[in-house]
Write a structure and sequence with these properties.
The chain is α+β, with helices and mostly antiparallel strands and about 100 residues long. It has 2 helices and 4 strands, in the order βαββαβ. It has one domain. The protein starts with a strand and ends with a strand.
Amino acid sequence: MEKYRVDTDTWSSGEYTSREKAEAVYEYYKDQKMADGVSEESYVELVRSMDDFEGGEVVKRANVVMDEEKMKISTPKDDGLEWDYWAKWQEEIMP
């Protein structure tokens, strides 16, 4: 049976048999990680497995990148915040 899981650089979810539920968890954790603060190594992945995660295939992955457009307008420090750059997710859909 096909199962899904969400992995981040610091956490792994439980398993889901519904891709829709796993996608919702994936989007939720993208929002949570960005709100909690990210580093250059931060990522969120949606992983699919047919063998109870003895192996797995990344369906899509979101990596943190600097938001260059927002940085042209201002930096977080300009706005009185403590971090150095604005970040956003860059998403890759795997074939």
